[in-house]
Amino acid sequence: MSALVAAAEKEGQLNVITLPSNWANYGAIMSDFSAKYHIHITDANPDGSSQDELNAVNQLKGQSRAPDVLDVGTAFAVKGDQEGILAPYQVATWSDIPSTAKASDSTWYADYGGYVAIGYNSATVKTPPTTFKSLLNPAYKNQIAINGNPTQANAAFSAVYAAALANGGSLSNIAPGIAYFKQLHSEGNFVPVTASAATMESGQTPIIIWWDYLLASEIGSSVKTLKIVIPSDGVYASYYDQAISKYAPDPAAARLWEEYLYSTTGQNLWLEGEARPIELPTLVANGTVNQAAYKALPPAPAGTVTFPTQTQAAAAENVVAQQWSSVIG
Amino acid sequence: MGQTVAAPGSLQDPGALGSGPAAPSASSVRLTALSSLRWLRRVAGVVPFGAYVTLGLLLPMVAVAVGAFQNNSGGFTLSNVNTAVHGIYLHGFWQSIILSVLSSVLPGIFGLVIAYAIFTARRGNLLRQVAITASGVFANFGGVPLAFLFIATLGSGGLATQWLTDLGFNPYNHGFSLYTLAGVVVVYMYFQIPLMVLIILPALEGLRPAWREAAENVGASNWQYWRYVGGPVLLPSFLGCLLLLFGSGLSAYATAEALTNGAIPLTSIQIGSFLNGNVIAGQENVGKALGLGMVIIIAIAMVIYVALQRRAAKWLR
Amino acid sequence: MAAITGPRRFGLSASGRQRTSKPVIWRWVVLLITAAYFLIPLWSALRFAGISAFGSVIGFAGFGSSLWLSVKLATLTTLITIALMLPTAVYVHLRLPKVRRLLEGITILPIVIPPVVLIVGVLAIAPGFLKSSDLLLALEYVVLAMPFAYRSLDAGLRALDLKTIVEASNSLGGGWITTLWRVILPNLRTAMLSAVVLTVALVLGEYTMASLDLYQTFPVWIYVNSQASGQVSVAASLLALFVTWLFLMLITVLATRQSRKTGGGQVTLFAVTRQETRGN
Lengths: 329, 317, 280
Fold this sequence. Notes:
heterotrimer, A: alpha/beta, D-Maltodextrin-Binding Protein, domain 2, 9-stranded mixed sheet, two-stranded parallel sheet, 11 strands, 39% helix, C: mainly alpha, MetI-like fold, globular, disordered N terminus
């Protein structure tokens, strides 16, 4: 480990990509890492997508600007593995990561995740929503929005999946989710814009369906009266994945970054961003969890969460791509 | 009026056989070589441009075209193209064309009127400077910020909506919604009109004041001036600007996506979901097939444009 | 003839019929509606953002360096674009009129190619030394600016009687460069200004390709530093508009001052058109 630290500090530079500073507390994570190891972090393409990350690894191969580490959705981690552009690596706490949440060839591993949640501005929304069904209440006319296009944005896609689970669908059947949003729109409750902190602050979309940790970090910081609730009828969670680029210009720094993220410090920093780090159960069992941050999380629904397989997800994407336009159609 | 005889070596030197003194037939081979050299000299002027365009535009385009017919392991396939011309993607092409036509013709006409108003204003200088610079800024404004501007103004709780409701007329109760194709057109005009103003202003200088005065002199009314003098002069440039606006409307996606979350199928948004998305992985070649489709649409638009220009030229006579 | 060029405002035509001041009113109505359409949404956004949000945007690190990068790119792009498009457009108008349609077709293509495709394609073929410098971005911006620059220059060239003024310049002994610089260019002032304004505004506002090429230009910086709150993000985008507008005003004012100094004006001596010569 100390050899790794020495090599990384010698490199002195880390290139990360698509990590907004208020996404799962990455701002604090990056500045803490920089201060601790005197490694300068360059964060490029802040608004980029998972596909952009893979493209950057391929296109900027051999450049000193190329990304060292990736934080992508699982479908893209798998794709990167298939393309052979990821380097296998096992962090010190490898055994604390569930086997279903990492690649068999150690090229990618889950980092943090959250639940699809309903965030609302309690100052303007007098009747708190609790479930997807409750959102059909006429009191919420012109108030509800999701964060993006379900064929392009993971959070929006997951919102549709969660709505499907709440309306008789399953991980293999996402159509009821689309039907739900169609109904929400015909009742006049659904506003088809891309919601953001600005749209909630200005009063245009007081209710937003998004990841719970993003509601907290991107909206909660400016809307003090924000309340987050995980709908009990549609429980859908998802984790993102870390990976190291095979062509990383700073390989030691990249590996040190991963070690840092999977250490207690890193995991707790993610927790402070109200995301659920993958090693949370271990932290709780060992008592090393940040209790205040842990208590601040919205109460998780009981039971275990099942994730869709690649086949189920791909099939669901096709259905959404074909039918999403019927929502306002 | 006879043909102008150009001085040899001037820019007007046609360099073609038969325009100079009679050539001896014995050296016909030498003349062919000379004329092809002359032709080379003629096209030499566009070689820098050609080289630049080949490297920076045509090569990436060829990469797209090739990718459209490849499957993920590099082999040839028609399945991407097949997907691209069916179902929601075909619907997307139609919607994109409709949106582009609306968001080129309407802003085209408004832009021309506004440009003319600016152009003919008396104390024009400051007004013209502000108009040109503001147009430049707005022509490149779009995406999420622009969508927010209009949500805050014409959204269901927007400023203008509230003003109108206070006046007794709530547009949302009468079928208007910002989040429909019509609403998207209204928002698109925010960058299409300034673009039109900027590129038609130079053409307005082709309208000599002398012609206006001459027309008035012979008793032409306003309408007659435009029908016989102003219109024909401006028409070729106007059509060219419409073509540009059409292309601009076709390729814009961030604004429409922020306004409707992809609920209106548009090819540009669909390409985005394939090529730089967070949901669908491994189908970039379908995105490239859609991109190829957009190139075909603009090629068809060019054909229509050329046909319209020919008719306009007839009108000129 | 002086009566015709008399005060237009009172609209006296040669036949003595008095026209109303309708043209004046019409112009003001158009300008007023236009101003309303463009300014009211800005006002709604400004109202929401609040003045203090602007202060916090400027305070973030990197404002200067990202702006400088964008200005550098804008200058480079504009110079290359004009140097490439102007001679080509003039040359084609003069000597290769049949190629004009092809040129129009080629210059419209960049607008329909998604920027992500363009940058991926370019990064695939660009040599290493180019990829590691921001020059590549400037070169790609030239391709993006091409449709707009060409369209402006084309509109300006159509408004001229190019053949005649070039012939006149030649007969007075001017070479290719002199003709371009001292005869054609002064007549293309508005077209050049439009082309330059569009190109500079494009570069100062272009986000997608810069972020995909992993550079922090001004628009990328604006995005990165607008995450603190909704009000800050709206303030940031309004600030970007304002800064761009200031730059363009600077360019426009300088250009107008320069042309007034050199006494440039439209060469209206040779306003002979096709219609007027056909009668001979």
